[in-house]
Automatic annotation (TrEMBL):
This is NADH-quinone oxidoreductase subunit D. SUPFAM superfamilies: HydB/Nqo4-like, Nqo5-like. The lineage of its organism: Archaea, Methanobacteriati, Methanobacteriota, Stenosarchaea group, Halobacteria. Gene3D superfamilies: Cytochrome-c3 Hydrogenase, chain B (1.10.645.10), NADH:ubiquinone oxidoreductase, 30kDa subunit (3.30.460.80). It is a peripheral membrane protein. InterPro entries: NADH_Q_OxRdtase_suD, NADH_quin_OxRdtase_su_C/D-like, NADH_UbQ_OxRdtase_30kDa_su, NADH_UbQ_OxRdtase_CS, NDH1_su_D/H, NiFe-Hase_large. It comes from Haloarcula terrestris. Its main location: membrane. NCBIfam families: PRK06075.1 (NF004739).
Length: 560
């Protein structure tokens, strides 16, 4: 079966048995550090002291193989604050563990994990910004989504949303710090790229320090498109009011992929079984969204590199529009689909079914020729190769340190795809391959996306074959879900899907009501964007623009 994952070195798999993780063995490994244990839906959680975070996480990373800090969730209870580090393994993401760090109500703080996992840097800054937890020994603890002058923390219980805010314009601030100057040549130049710039793919501000013509220091400044998505989801009901929001995270093409991330978490939280027929429709439509997303990523990336709008960009958009037509026929919308429902999908395939299947097959039949055109125009172009080969290099070790996923990780040879490694939907019943490239550069990331379009087409074709033959009396599109959904109180879950950009995860904590007590979004773009300084150090501004484009970020998902 092509979905079989290559064998890996399991020397670090402490506590792994044939049935999965042995949490007792992991607790023995940590010894007295474990104060208590909690049973979350996806994984067991170990409660530890606030001043032992680095020691515990280092042990789990080095001795038990938990090399992926997927997400950090922060929240406030009536009697405490809490940080949760969601740990997984790139080798096998079904091996999960939550590290829970409570801290006192009057002085919320715990030791930073950023010294162990680089990706925890931004995650903890967000937790500090929105919830108000301090992280001791953090390399740069300051706000990340809101202005530095903001008063209060919007996700804390005592936040006064009516308090007036003053955001000062620091027009005379000197951005050049001593640690940004070259020891050999102190003549550095500070350059603002964005936030309104066609190469930043949204309102991204890149603070760049040049030493001559090379980048000496770079910092992505995000938060210009923060829309309080988590707060809005916490105010909506599970059954009806949350599902329209995910389309607006990655608002370009990945709507159904986003909806599936929420659906998977909520369905597992409430023990909802999705009918097999609906799973096939979900899988087919999700791969259509993946193709649309990758086609747009290629088009905009070529625009960044070539600056050619009339040819290369339009070729990518031409193919994407056909997929958008198919999605519009299915969902009634071109971007904000709102098609998935908890327990299934909103409605069946459009009638006449044979005509819809014919449209899909026509698209799939034309796709190989169109991809060949793209390769001739883009990947076979000498200028494109000079701009992309050996620029923006990201090593597999850096990928894992920053929690990068999706084509960014697979372009560096990290063989990680949740569709295969943590199966959901109908993926494990189909024949397809996970695509990786070993170069780790901008060129490799483009190749991964183009090859993934081919694999998505294979998946869609198999789904169409199944749907064509499905008995009419057995076309069940939704499970029997209560009109008002109230998961049991104090249930917690972290679930994720393989979005177009990488691992899109959702953490939900229920309190017995029809609304989540905590709703946390793990954006793949958020973690992937952290790698930009590593990719750009010592390179030129045009190389950085290419590297940023190769990450394929959408600021609506970064900021949420």
């Amino acid at each position: 079966m092509s979905l079989e994952k290559p064998s890996r070195d399991t020397a670090l798999d402490v506590g792994v048995t044939e049935d999965g993780l042995d949490y007792d063995a992991l607790a023995d490994l940590l010894g007295g550090h474990v104060l208590d244990r909690e049973a979350h839906v996806n994984a067991e959680g170990f409660v530890i002291r606030p001043d032992e975070v680095q020691e515990v996480l280092s042990t789990l990373k080095e001795e038990a193989g938990f090399d992926h800090c997927a997400c950090v969730t922060a929240q406030e209870y009536d009697d405490r604050y809490e940080s949760i580090y969601h740990l997984r393994k790139y080798n096998d993401p079904t091996q999960e563990l939550s590290i829970i760090v409570p801290s006192p109500k009057d002085d919320p703080h715990n030791e930073s994990a950023a010294r162990v996992y680089d990706t925890a840097d931004w995650h903890e800054r967000e937790a500090y910004d929105l919830v108000g937890i301090d992280y001791d020994d953090h390399p740069d603890l300051r706000r990340i989504l809101l202005p530095e002058t903001w008063q209060g923390h919007p996700l804390s219980q005592d936040y006064n949303q009516d308090q007036p805010q003053i955001v000062s314009l620091r027009e005379h601030a000197n951005p050049l710090q001593d640690d940004q100057r070259s020891e050999d040549d102190p003549d550095t130049m500070f350059v603002n790229i964005g936030p309104h710039h066609p190469a930043t793919h949204g309102v991204l501000h890149v603070e760049t320090v040049l030493d001559g013509e090379q980048i000496a220091d770079l910092e992505p400044d995000i938060g210009y498109l923060h829309r309080c998505e988590e707060q809005m989801c916490q105010q909506g009901t599970y059954r009806h009011q949350i599902m329209p929001y995910p389309d607006r995270w990655d608002y370009i093409s990945a709507g159904i992929l986003n909806e599936w991330a929420y659906a998977r978490a909520a369905e597992d939280l409430a023990d909802i079984e999705v009918p097999e027929y609906a799973q096939i429709i979900r899988t087919m439509s999700a791969e259509m969204c993946r193709i649309a997303s990758h086609e747009l990523a290629l088009a905009t990336f070529a625009l960044d590199v070539f600056g050619d709008f009339t040819a290369v960009f339009q070729y990518g958009i031409r193919d994407r529009e056909i997929v958008q037509n198919l999605l519009e026929d299915l969902t009634g919308q071109r971007l904000m689909f709102n098609y998935l429902r908890l327990g299934g999908v909103a409605w069946d395939l459009p009638e006449p079914r044979e005509e819809y299947f014919e449209k899909i097959r026509d698209f799939l039949d034309d796709l190989p020729h169109k991809l060949e055109e793209i390769h001739d125009l883009v990947t076979g172009n000498e200028i494109f190769q000079m701009r992309c080969v050996d620029t923006g290099v990201l090593s597999p070790e850096q990928v894992k340190q920053y929690g990068a996923t999706g084509p960014v990780a697979r372009g560096s040879g990290v063989d990680y795809d949740l569709r295969r490694d943590d199966p959901y939907g109908y993926y494990d019943e189909l024949d397809w391959n996970v695509v990786t490239e070993q170069g780790g550069d901008n060129f490799s990331r483009v190749l991964v996306r183009l090859r993934e379009v081919e694999e998505s087409a294979r998946i869609i074709e198999q789904c169409v074959d199944l749907l064509e033959q499905w008995p009419e009396d057995d076309r069940e599109i939704q499970a029997n879900v209560p009109r008002t959904l109230r998961p049991d109180p104090d249930r917690e879950i972290y679930r994720s899907v393989e979005g177009a950009k990488g691992e899109l995860g959702i953490y939900i904590r229920s309190d017995g009501t029809d609304k989540p007590a905590r709703f946390k979004i793990r954006s793949p773009c958020f973690s992937n964007l952290q790698t930009l300084p590593e990719m750009s150090q010592g390179e030129y501004i045009p190389d950085m623009i290419a590297s940023l484009g190769s990450l394929d970020i959408v600021l609506g998902e970064v900021d949420r």
